[in-house]
Amino acid sequence: MKKVLIKGNNAVVHAAILAGCRNYFGYPITPASEIAEGSALLFPKVGGVFLQAESEIGAINMLYGAASSGVRCMTASSSPGISLKMEGISYLAGSELPCVIVDITRGGPGLGNIAPEQSDYYQIVKGGGHGNYKLIVLAPNSAQEMCDLTMLAFELADKYRNPTVIMADGTIGQMMEPVEFPQPVTTFPKKDWAVKATPETRENLITSIELDPDRLEVHNHKLQKKYAIIEEKEVRCEEYRSDDAEIILLGFGIVSRILQTAVDELRSEGIAVGLLRPVTLFPFPKKIIESYAQKKNIRFFNVFELNNGQMVDDVRLAVNGLKSVYFHGRMGGNMPTVKEVIGEIMKNMRQS
Amino acid sequence: MTILNKNVLQKPASFYDTFIRKGGTELKTTHYCPGCGHGILHKLIAETLSDFGIKDKTILVSPVGCSVFAYYYFDVGNIQSAHGRAPAVGTGYKRANPDSILISYQGDGDLAAIGANEIIQAANRGESMTVFFINNAIYGMTGGQMAPTTLIGQKTTTTPYGRNINSEGYPIRMSEIIGTLEAPVYVERCMLTDAKNIAKTRRAVRKAIHNQIDNKGFSFVEVLSGCPTGWKISPHDSKKWIESTLSKYFVPGVFKDVSEERESIPIKQERPSPGDYHKLMQIKHLSDLDDKVPTPAKTTFHEELKIAGFGGQGLLSLGYVIASVAMEHHYEVSWLPSYGPEMRGGTANCSVKISDKRIGAPLVANPTTLIVMNKPSMDRFENEVVNGGTIIYDCGLIDTPPKRQDIRTIGLPATELADKIGNTKAANMILLGVYASMIPHILSDSYIRWVLPYILENKAFHDINLKAFDLGYAYLKNK
Ligand SMILES: Cc1ncc(C[n+]2csc(CCOP(=O)(O)OP(=O)(O)O)c2C)c(N)n1
Ligand code: SF4
């Protein structure tokens, strides 16, 4: 076992390099700045490009330019910066450009604070930009996953020609944990669609405009078909002690770590609790949740988030009224303690 | 007129033969209105690309505006960008592909209003690209609204009473502004009103592109251009108006030209082999080192450690050392610095968890051990320690000992002791020693003595750190 103790944010940078990413464009913001700083330090060493853009708008459009040529490229920011990137994200989705966007989320709305919130769920998963688009969204809950899911993000982005987001909160970004880095990727998919400044690719065109409503509808249908395939093939969800559970907890990112401890503590008292942790927020593990909702022994679902209740919408759609879905959220950058979580579950047990 | 017609009608090789992408039935003509400057400038650019033999490696970034469909015509690599963002898109492309030729083609709304920041910043960085700027003093595509270059008093659909300086300010002169920046190589304003001026524009286009072939940096050509449709006058009157009025405010000329003096920037793209990445990325594996000291066997263990005090006392690195060593001893670990809601009250702290099992929540709310180095932190965390837990504290800095009776308390004047051996900052290493001596099967002293110089970057304090660690390690035994 060869592990290094490293911050989640730095693990992203190393993983990006190992995944063959050589182009970083970004604008500093806490708590994501280590990613920019780490990239500034390391990208030039591997013959890569690091550029501090004039703004998040600049950065996301630089990504658009670099991605147009088919190279692996990335940017990182935090919630307010991601809001600013939304225009570019819609264009990237429309032009089907693969790239990786890291969002180390913080408290909002407005300037909010730098503490961990998960209130970007709506804007990232549901689409903060205009148009019928979807991003692939991965939600790591450890430094190791910051590495592994970054590697995966580049792969999925290329495979589906789709922008892919790593959404982690500030805690995951700031926390150090042992990480085992994989071997560098050395073979990359061919990208025949890219504009590469070569005679063979001269005919290629990167664009999101289509004036003809019929043709734009065809394009939209094509996108929806792609999203359906992604929903079919790319769902990732961790099921923790949920097999015989009567109560299912749900949470992503850092929250799932708190829930995991709560599950262990409640199990040691003989209460049959389990945890479902969506690793992919899009595609959302709706079929998995649905299958639990159909189980006779399940009493209720309990969703925990660091926001006003965003992912819980998707859980409710999946549960589809079969069981009660309770929600507990913290906002402003506060995190529930294990005790608080257990108290919440006990309260709901008495109710249901 | 005849020269102009001939030039316009003959297609250079960098134009498509038929404009298939345009759709409809008229596949030989452009979508531009009669008297529009876009078509002429397109042609001058296409001609240059053909003459220089670079169409295969040229990328044209088209803007939002009437020239959004430039890719109907240019037989080059085409990228269509968001409104105003072409210079940023171009930057990303060119940085990733330094051997390409990158052209950003923009209108006045695109470049001087919504995209003003992107163009200034790209120019100021001296991006190796060529920008063509069509200034027609109006928004053509959206039906004739005011542009930032609309003249004072000029009527548009959004200045129906004429542009008013007290409300809309003055028309902005982009060439003049960009000409004041250090980085750009070449900045010129031209017009297309007659054969002489078209010839001048042609020279400017060629120079601006050639500068990029020579990799000299950023070149910018503004072209005053007719928009009979937006201005609601005839093509003939448009030309007259450019000559009599528009060019009097936006005076043609060269605003900067250091093409001769500026040296080519060498393109360097070293790509080290993947085998070297780990080394280049400074990933250190302690287990790879030859002189490695053996680690003790793994046992059942779970610790929730909180280390708290003022910033600058080295508490975060103390936590880091403990977590690193425990990790090398094959335990699961997590290290979380005070961050967000934890940062209240002027204290710095970190949570360290060590366990033989998978770690859940990384934040330590109820420490099994608290290492504490100032009074505010003691006040804040004393009551959080679990029943039967331990507090190790600097009794030189905290004058009131913990009141709890259900826990073990160890007070030592760590900072004072560190002072005595020559460095106040080594207090954290004394505490490390004390802590390690309590769990030698998890943090073995021989291993720590070996590993400290590898983990702590500052070699100057190496000896003192070891001395401090030894002092701490023997402290409880000697007491
Ligand atoms: C974000 C955004 N805002 C507004 C528009 C609408 N829009 C399209 S073109 C244009 C103005 C273009 O004017 P200019 O750059 O002068 O180009 P011209 O059409 O005159 O060649 C505007 C405002 C848009 N497409 N996107
Ligand atoms: S509206 Fe103006 S800028 Fe647009 S094509 Fe017509 S003349 Fe040219």
Structure description:
The complex is a heterodimer of chains A (352) and B (479). Chain A has helices spanning 8-18, 33-42, 56-68, 79-94, 121-127, 143-160, 170-174, 213-233, 254-268, 286-293, 311-319, 338-351, and strands spanning 4-7, 23-26, 49-52, 73-77, 99-105, 136-138, 163-169, 176-179, 205-206, 237-240, 247-250, 273-278, 280-282, 300-305, 324-329. With 352 residues, chain A is of the alpha/beta class. Chain A has two domains: 3-233, Thiamin diphosphate (ThDP)-binding fold, Pyr/PP domains (Rossmann fold, 3-Layer(aba) Sandwich); 238-351, Rossmann fold (3-Layer(aba) Sandwich), CATH 3.40.50.920. A seven-stranded mixed sheet of chain A has the order 3-2-4-5-7-6-13, with helices on both faces. Chain A has a five-stranded mixed sheet with strand order 10-12-11-14-15, sandwiched between helices. In chain A, strand 2, helix 2 and strand 3 form a beta-alpha-beta unit. In chain A, helix 1 (8-18) runs parallel beside helix 6 (143-160), helix 9 packs across helix 12 (338-351) and helix 10 crosses helix 11 (311-319). With 479 residues, chain B is of the alpha/beta class. Chain B folds into two domains: 20-257, Thiamin diphosphate (ThDP)-binding fold, Pyr/PP domains (Rossmann fold), CATH 3.40.50; 274-478, 3-Layer(aba) Sandwich (Pyruvate-ferredoxin Oxidoreductase, domain 3). Chain B is 36% helix and 16% strand. Classes of the chains: A alpha/beta (352), B alpha/beta (479). Chains A and B meet through helix 1, helix 3, helix 4, helix 7 and strand 8 of A and strand 1, strand 2, helix 3, helix 5 and helix 11 of B. Strand 9 of chain A pairs parallel with strand 2 of chain B, so a sheet runs across the interface. The complex binds thiamine diphosphate (TPP) and iron/sulfur cluster.
